[in-house]
Design brief:
Number of domains: 2
Bound molecules: pyridoxal-5'-phosphate
Helix content: 40-55%
Distance between the termini: 32 Å
CATH architecture of the largest domain: 3-Layer(aba) Sandwich
CATH class of the largest domain: Alpha Beta
Number of helices: 13
Strand content: 15-25%
Radius of gyration: 21 Å
CATH topology of the largest domain: Aspartate Aminotransferase, domain 2
CATH superfamily of the largest domain: Type I PLP-dependent aspartate aminotransferase-like (Major domain)
Number of strands: 13
C-alpha cells in the first residue's frame, strides 16, 4: 500500500517509522509547514470552520477566496484569477471552456494527465506533437482544420524537470492564429523573477492567453487556479463544471495558507533563492559523480538508471540509508528510462543535501551505475 508520513512536510519527515530526508514532495519553497502559514490556516479555521460545505456560487465563497484570487493575480501580473480545489480540477474545468466540438487542440505528448483529461472532456479534436518539438508542432498546425485552435503545454515537465520552449511555441501560436495555454504547476513559485513562473522566466506574458497552476506545490497548500485576462476568467467562472458542481471548493483554511505564502514570497525572494542554491549545489555534486540527470534545468532532478527494477531497488536502498526519493517507472516514463525522481526544496539544509548525495553515490556504486 502507500507509505505513510507521520510528520509535517519538510526537508526531513517521519516516513513509515523512520526519519528520512524528503526528496519526493513538491514543497519547493519549504513553506507547507512554516509557522506563519500554519497560523494563517488556523485563524481561517477559527473564523470559517473546516469544510466549505457549499459550492462557491451558492454559499461557499469566503472572503479569503476573493483575497487569494486578487493576491494571485497581482503575483502573476495578470488581470484576474479563479481558484479551484486542485490543479486537476483547473485543467479539466478550464479546457472545455476554451474549446469544444469542431475545434482543435495541439498538445505536447508529455503533458500532464489532467491536461489530457481536460482535452478529452472538451470534445475538441486533439493533435499530439512530439515533446518540445517545434517542427512536429508546426506540421500539425499546417494540417487544415476548422474552428478554434488551442496549443497546450506544461511549463515545467514533472518527470524530467525540463522546460517547454514557450517563446517558440508562442511564435507558432501567433503565426497559426491559435490560443496558447500553459500549465505551470511546477513553475509557479519556482521559475523566473520572484518565482512568478515559467511565462515570466521567458518574458512572454503578453503571448500566453491562459495559464493554469497548482497551489499544492511551491505554495505549500492545496488547490488549483486559472490566470489571465478578466474577460476570460469571467467567462470561465459560470461555465467550468469542476468549479460550479462541487461543494468541495478550496477549503478556506487552505486558501488562507496559500494567501500567506503568496504574501511572503511577494516581498521576500530568499525562499526562491534558497531553493535554487540548493538545486545548484546538489546538481553539481551529482553531475561530478557521473550520474545521468537527463535534461533537467529545474529543481526536479531525475537520476536516470534504466530498468524499473533498478530504480525500485535504489529507492528502497536509499530509504534504508535515510533518504526518500521516488522511483518512477513505465508507464510514467519510457521503459528504459526508469529513474529516481529527486525534488529539491528550500527546506533542505546543506547537511540534508550532503547526506543525500553520499547515500546516492554509495547506492549508485553498489549498483554499478558509476
Ligand atoms: C503539470 C501538472 N499539472 C497539474 C497538476 C495537478 O495539480 P494538483 O496536484 O493541484 O491537482 C500536477 C500535479 O502534480 C502537475 O504536475
Amino acid at each position: 500500500m502507500y507509505r505513510t508520513i507521520y510528520s509535517k512536510q519538510g526537508g526531513k519527515i517521519q516516513l513509515d517509522g523512520r526519519e528520512v530526508i524528503n526528496m519526493a514532495s513538491n514543497n519547493y519553497l519549504g513553506l507547507a509547514s512554516h509557522p506563519q502559514v500554519m497560523e494563517a490556516a488556523k485563524a481561517a479555521i477559527d473564523a470559517y470552520g473546516v469544510g466549505p460545505t457549499a459550492s462557491r456560487n451558492i454559499v461557499g465563497n469566503f472572503p479569503v477566496h476573493d483575497e487569494l484570487e486578487a493576491a494571485l493575480a497581482k503575483f502573476k501580473e495578470v488581470e484576474a484569477t479563479l481558484v479551484f480545489n486542485c490543479g486537476v480540477s483547473a485543467n479539466t474545468g478550464v479546457i472545455p471552456c476554451l474549446v469544444g466540438k469542431g475545434d482543435t487542440i495541439y498538445s505536447d505528448e508529455l503533458n500532464h494527465g489532467s491536461i489530457i483529461d481536460g482535452c478529452k472532456l472538451s470534445g475538441a479534436k486533439v493533435k499530439v506533437f512530439a515533446h518540445k518539438d517545434m517542427a512536429s508542432l508546426e506540421a500539425r498546425l499546417q494540417e487544415a482544420v476548422e474552428g478554434k485552435k488551442l496549443i497546450i503545454t506544461d511549463g515545467v515537465f514533472s518527470m524530467d524537470g525540463d522546460l517547454a520552449p514557450l517563446p517558440e511555441i508562442a511564435e507558432l501560436a501567433k503565426k497559426y492564429d491559435a490560443m496558447f495555454m500553459v500549465d505551470d504547476a511546477h513553475g509557479d513559485g519556482v521559475m523566473g523573477p520572484m518565482g512568478r513562473g515559467t511565462v515570466d522566466y521567458f518574458g512572454v506574458r503578453d503571448l500566453v492567453h491562459v495559464e493554469t497552476g497548482s497551489l499544492s506545490k511551491a505554495f505549500g497548500s492545496a488547490g488549483g487556479f486559472v490566470a489571465g485576462k478578466k474577460e476570460l476568467i469571467d467567462s470561465i467562472r459560470p461555465k467550468a463544471r469542476s468549479f460550479i458542481f462541487t461543494a468541495s471548493p478550496m477549503a478556506p483554511c487552505l486558501a488562507a495558507g496559500a494567501l500567506e505564502v503568496i504574501k511572503m514570497v511577494s516581498t521576500d525572494e530568499s525562499y526562491v533563492n534558497r531553493l535554487w542554491e540548493n538545486r545548484e549545489y546538489f546538481v553539481e555534486k551529482l553531475t561530478k559523480l557521473g550520474l545521468n540527470l537527463g535534461t533537467t534545468i529545474t529543481p526536479i532532478v531525475p537520476v536516470i538508471v534504466g530498468e524499473a527494477e533498478l530504480a525500485q531497488k535504489m529507492s528502497a536502498d536509499l530509504f534504508e540509508k535515510g533518504v526518500f526519493a521516488q522511483a518512477i517507472c513505465f508507464p510514467m516514463v519510457a521503459r528504459d528510462a526508469a529513474r529516481l525522481r529527486v525534488i529539491l526544496s528550500a527546506g533542505h539544509t546543506k547537511e540534508d543535501l550532503d547526506l543525500a548525495v553520499n547515500a546516492i553515490a554509495e547506492s549508485a556504486r553498489n549498483m554499478g551505475l558509476i
